[in-house]
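Lecture 7 notes: from sequence to structure.

We start with a single chain of 257 residues. Read the sequence below before looking at the structure.
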Amino acid sequence: MLAAGELEQRRPTEQRTTLRVPLLAPAVIVSESHSLAGAVCNVSSGGLFVTTEANHILPVGVGVRVRFQLREHLELMLYGVTRWVRMEPEPGGPPGMGIEFYDVDDVMRTLLETHVLQDAARASASYGYATLEEKFRVAVSPQGWLQVYLCGVLGASEANELGRQIVDSLSVVCRRPVRLFLDVSHYCPCPEATLCSLRTMLGKFRNLEELVGVMVGRSSVGLLQMRRLMREAGIADYLVCFESYAEACRFMDQATN
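Now the structure, written as tokens:
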């Protein structure tokens, strides 16, 4: 649903508050549909920057799971969101994505801060591998549709971050009725803790005065679980379900016009 021209380019507007050091590491960016080569240029306790070709850059707001190796035999798994992108090479660096970590526990934060301070003191880089696994996207289309994409099994913290992004996006959607496009084609059944967060997130749409919803998904256990969540959240009657994108797009065109 998102064309390359719709990728939002952002730069950090706030002053950086965490020290970063180089981390020269091969990286693989993984989603449900592709696996791309890339490299981690630097890392801090707050996030990292991954370089890749411009046509492989994920949009701003994509939730990812980041696995990377700080040192030999020390691999970390953290939750992150793409916060800004660089589409073309510049004096400041190559094309890539700035990933901000969230829900970092004290142990992980200590490991990151220790690594950053040690490498800053030595002025040296570490080597390892990194993987970015796409978990969710939230975007608003030019036609005013709030687009939500879910991939794989989500953790509770990922569902909470998804909810925060949806609330932020709803604040900029001015058209009524609110138009929701939910893609669960690659969604997998989630544990109960995640379902509680997703149920709360979906319940926010019940409070809207007007809602038109489209859900796309294959016949699967994940789709059945999502339909149950819709009923429990009280918005099932506002959603039309499709198994193909073509049918969903025709309906969306009619609803938009």
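The mean pLDDT is 78. Keep this in mind for problem set 3.
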